[in-house]
Model the fold of this input.
Amino acid sequence: MNFQPGTIYHIYNRGNQQQTIFFDRGNYIYFLEKVRKYILPRCDLLCWCLMPNHFHFLLHANAQTVMPVSKSIIPTQHLTEGIRLLLSSYTKGIQKQRGFKGNLFQQKTKAKPVNDDGLSYSLTAFHYIHQNPYKAKLVEKMEEWEFSSFADYLERRSEDLCNKALAENLLDLDLKRFYEISYQAIPGNDVKLIF
Done:
């Protein structure tokens, strides 16, 4: 992954062979602790969603994101190393808990730049990420899914991972109409542009 400062990225990965990666509530919380440790110091997180067999982040690359890792043999950026540490440390914890060996995640985490260029790719990614559990019929309402930033934007949680002020500015979010807009259908062709 080669990140550029000032760019918004849709980051995602899923279980190897589409296997489950979160087996219980504690696994989700453990993963979010790792996000706080390895991802937040390296970028501005705009939104996120953890699903039973995959995850999504929408983030804004900043100066910390692109800093080179000083002790790396291969030139590596700070956020790339953070993603590696997140996935490897989480995998080790799950392997120990569940008693298995091998890869938990697919080999390559995807990082798709979604800056607008006059279009609303980043806003599409934002709403798509929040709609994931609703579209998968895991919940009847998006706010019922505990493991996404949707509740943070509704101000139903006191602690969150997102830089909401930056997201509001970069994505031109209409927070007065946020709930209503969040449930609007996203055309299939628009979804293809964020992957």
Remarks:
- The two ends are 14 Å apart (CA to CA).
